[in-house]
Amino acid sequence: MGLFDNRSIVVTRLVVAVVLLSLFGIFVAMTVAPPGDMLADYAPGDAGYGINRGDMAWMLTSSALVLLMTPGIGLFYGGMISSQNIVATIATAVLPMAIIPIVWSLIGFSLAFGEDVGGVLGNPATYGLMYNVGASRWNDLTISTSTWFTYQCVFAIITPSIIVGAICDRVNFPALCVFIPLWHIIVYCPITHMVWTPDGIIAAWGVLDFAGGMVVHMSAGYAALAAAFFLGPSKVKTELPANVPYVVLGTALLWFGWFGFVGGSALSATVYTSHAILNTNVATAVAMLTWMLLEQVNGHTFKATGMCLGVVVGLVAITPAAGFVN
Fold it and tell me: CB–CB of 252/67 below 8 Å?
């Protein structure tokens, strides 16, 4: 059932018109220059701001790699689900790519990284409507604010995509279009602020999360578990998985994109970056081999899906400590 199935055509057109006008107004608001010398702010490669072109290039490349992981998740989940839900599962997994960038630009980035409010949330006025998001240097890093904005945006995109794997055959598009932005604002942004900003209450406890073990995987995992309990068991009883090549392809995209996930979390193109990627690659290989051996020990036949599950387990397990393991 669609969101407007029980509404008149006049109401439907009115709602669509309001949404389009709102988006246009948001675009106009974002193009209004904040006070200050914008020419100086956007001077490319200005060494006076401490911005390093190599670090910028690596962080933007990492952003592209992480974004590639979202359709990878769709293929991974789509191959695991029943055959009648493959396309719907892939579509729900990539749906956040249409929703989160808008919410992130409006208020999400500011809620996550704005001026601290009680150690729990950022001030929505700091970067709301992308205000002050430009070429100026981001804190003590050697990248611009816009680069940091982009990199964190792709993290925000992939997190709700992880959730849909638990509920993809029990929820429709209209419901997800409401759930995703609400969950992003109420859950994801506060957790990001608490863990990844110096004034966050969890960071103040000394908790270290290198690349999203808590911010991404734990928040999405708990949300998926809660959603699955709330919606109840699936009514589709078919043999799984439906498409093993999709699972393998999705896993390959995840492994490939994960280098941007952990490498970009080093926040620069240094030896620290290669250290994080090396740890990730070795840990993933070990987990993959371990899963294969455990299947043999338990008397199960060798399965490609088992290899893929081992890969994902290894990637997730090393993420919060990829830059810390020595």
Answer: no
Model pTM?
0.82
Q: Which residues, including other chains, have CB under 8 Å from residue 255's CB and lie 6 or more apart?
A: 284, 311, 315
Tokens of 263: 């490498």
Tokens linked to 186: 């109420």
**Residue pointed to by tokens 């290669």:** 274
What letter would DSSP give residue 140?
T
- Mean pLDDT score, 151-166: 90
Chain center to CA of 150: 11
Residue 121 pairs with which residues in a beta bridge?
117
pLDDT tens digits, residue range 246-266?
Answer: 899 999 999 999 999 999 888
- Residue 117, strand partner residues: 121
Q: Which two tokens stand for residue 271?
A: 């030896």
pLDDT of residue 81: 81
